[in-house]
Fold:
Amino acid sequence: MLGKAEPELRKADIAALFQAYQAKQALAPEAEIVEVIDEYDDEYFATGDFDTLFDLVEAEQVFRPIVPDKRNMLALFVKGGWFFQGLSYVPCPDCKIVAVHAYRKHFVRYGKSMHDWALVCSHCKYATDSVDFEKSSFTLISKDLQERFPVADLCSDCT
Structure:
């Protein structure tokens, strides 16, 4: 009924979801506050000039992510050309904390430009492709990041 009266309320409000997760984390007894000091500007991470996803994550977040041995993710993540897309408002499927950073890698299939996904949680230090996320969660991640940080604007192969 409310959807008919106010159709804009039928869409997910990403900012409101993010605020709710932040509030939940702040109120949790095990909540931690971490101050991030970024000594590099955004251009440094957007170049895609890192040898591997691991090099980029180590430069940006100062840790080497753990990668499960499935779906040939390790073989994909050791290839060059990765770039940082942005921080997602959707929580990590493992630790349930809003700390998922999205990285992308350009490739061409059947003459069409596409981008692989690497999703790295800065809390549990876990890296995965998009398959480990529920479809609804990944759809929110994809739409949100595309609206805030369009991949075509960030990818040096697309611009």
